[in-house]
Structure formats: structure tokens, C-alpha cells
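For this section, I looked closely at a protein sequence along with its fold in C-alpha cell form, which I now present.
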Amino acid sequence: MLGEFYKMEQFKFIEGGVCAPQGFSASGMHTGLSRNPNKNDVGMIYSEKICSAAAVYTQNKVKGAPILVTKRNLEDGKARAVIVNSTNANTCNADGEEKAWRMCEIAAKALNINPKDVIVASTGVIGQILNIKPIEENAEALAKKLDAGKDGSDACARAIMTTDLRKKEVAVEFELGGKLCRIGGIAKGSGMIHPNMATMLCFMTTDAAISGEMLGRALSAVTKRTFNRVSVDGDTSTNDMACIMANGLAGNSEIKDDCEDFEIFKSNLYTIMMTLSKEIARDGEGATKLLECVCTGANDEETAEKVAKSVITSSLFKAAMFGEDANWGRVLCAIGYADADFDISKVNVSLASKAGRIDVCRNGSGIDFSEEFAKVVLAEDEIQILVELCDGDESAVAWGCDLTYDYVKINGDYRS
């Protein structure tokens, strides 16, 4: 059910983001953390009942204080709310964990719940002391703004944006045992994006009934094939986290083990996380093109994944895509240094977009092609790099973006 090449029309997309599932509401507002008075900088998500919950975190050895606190809070596999701020990552600060736990207490008081049932997250500049006062002073107002409609999800999605230019929000609807279920999600991510879990912040909700153990299994499995296959710049952030809460209000029989309902749930979760992954890659800092590398014909999925990742993380290739240059040699170079076993003399490479497809390499060697038509293909804002290893039946997809002048400009004055 987690195949790479399934038809998106099989899934029913709906509005509402994290508020689409029953029993969830969200909010976001400007508290003063951001110097932009029009920018939401703190968000909140709330469930009317306790949820099964699971999360995955960055593999960076430097971890933001909110991750350490959230890990402890989720030891029992339960949660009921999220509080998150942008502007300041609350990372590498002596008082970081104290401030992160204080955010849980502030949210819990405003919502009248246990602070251990709060997921806390932060994103923004690393190494600056978090000013907790604006969050304390506005938590009650944030709770009063909770909205179960699409406006609530929109406000929260905007609150977590930093250098993001696009709001990232999606929801789907499906049936489990005759009961209508929904999954919704919001995410942020534009820079410091590299496939090493989780490459951003993502908050997901569902009204499906599923145990904490099975929710964690689903999240881990789908993360490997979505968020861990996104790269913008090769930097793994310190605050990356993806989490999901399930309140069971859809009324389906609780998923407690491997079964058909679990596969249906995973496939819909894949749809949510794959959509958000592509939106993160599309919104890469300074990006003008979404790049999707599809590797087929591998003897195992791990090989296909390593090759696809290697291509979309190549700075030289990303720069070529910005210049709309069909420099297939850079693709083959990136394939060649992937840590996997295959016969390079069998490899075929093509470039494709809605303008058409052009074959540029066959059996590991270049072939004649029209540079003029290649320019037309690469002028589009979504480019596919099709790699055939001709060595088996396994496949994988990875997503990235082009490397532009603006990426340097954005990160040259990130703190200013």
C-alpha cells in the first residue's frame, strides 16, 4: 500500500488541514516574538479528548530543547495538544528545557489539561534565548481563538512559517470498517532540509481509532518513504519533528495490529506526508523548480532510494536545473557515488516535465538529443529525473529543488 507509483485520484482530498478530523481545533496569532506585526508566531492545536500520539525526530546530535521535552511527554503514547512558536528555535540555550516545559505548562493552563499531554515545538534562529513572556501573555487569547474550521488550521500553519513562502496544509477522507475517517496535516520547511528525519516540523491529526503502537509504526514506515527523501540544501536541522495525534472520534474499530484497515490507514497517511514532502521541496529557499527523481529497475528498494537521494542532493545537478541545462553527466556522476551496488553500464537517464520527455543517457553513455527541446522541457517549474537501473523491479522517489542565487542571499542575512 506504500507503493511509489499509485494514482492520487484514488484518494479524496478535502479542506480543513489539521482541523478536518472530528474533535480538533487550531489557532495562531502574533504575540510579539516576530518583529513583523502581521506574522503569526505562535500556534496551538487541541483535541477535545485525549489522543494516541507518536512522533519522529531529527537525527542531529544537537537537538532543540522542545524535542527533549516532547520525547518525555510522549513516553506514555498520549497527547492532547500542541503549542509551537516560530522566530526562535530554543536550541543550544542553558535554559532551553526549562522554557520548553514552561510552554507546556502555559498551554495546559489555558486549555485546562495536564502539561504532560502537550507536544511542544519551536523553529527559528538557533542559540538565542527564547523570550517566554509573549507566549505567557497571549496563551489565553490563543486558546480562545481555537477554531475547528479551516481558518483555525490556516492560522496555525502560518504561525509555524519562517523563510517559507508557501503555507503547507492538506487533508484526506477515507473509510475504515464503514466509518468515515480523516487525516489532516500542516508542515513548515524551506531551508535546513535534508533526508535525515524529519527535515522540518509537521503536525498531523486523525479521528481514526488506532493504538499508539500502531500509530508509531505507521508514522515511522511512512516517514522513511516521504520526509526522509526530501532535500533542499543538505543541512539537517536541530529541531526537526513530525508528530500525529489520533482521537478515535470516527468510531471505527481500533486498529491494534496488522490488518487491512492498517494498510488503508498507512496509504492515506502516505498521501498526506508525500504531499507535504513535495510542498517542502517546492518551497526550498530561493527555489524556482521542484525536482522529483524517480529511480526504477533496482534489485531492492534501498538501492533505488540511495540513487534517487544522491541525485536530488547533488549541488552541481541542482545548479544545472536552475540554469535549465540538460547536463546529464552530473546526474550520472551523482548516481555513480551513491553507496549502492549496481551496473552503471546498464543505467538509462531521461528528463521530463509537462512539456515532454527527453532521453539523454542509455547504457551509461550519452546519446544524441535536441538541446533546444531539452531547454523547453527544463523551462517548466516541475522536473522529473527518470533513472532506470535495469537490474530488478524495485523503485523509489526522492524530492528536491534547484539551487539558485537567492538561496545564498536568504541565508546570508537570515538573522538580520
User: Anything to note?
Assistant: Confidence is low (pLDDT under 50) at residues 1-6. Residues 290-412 form a domain with the Ubiquitin-like (UB roll) fold (CATH 3.10.20.340). The chain is about 30% helix and 25% strand.
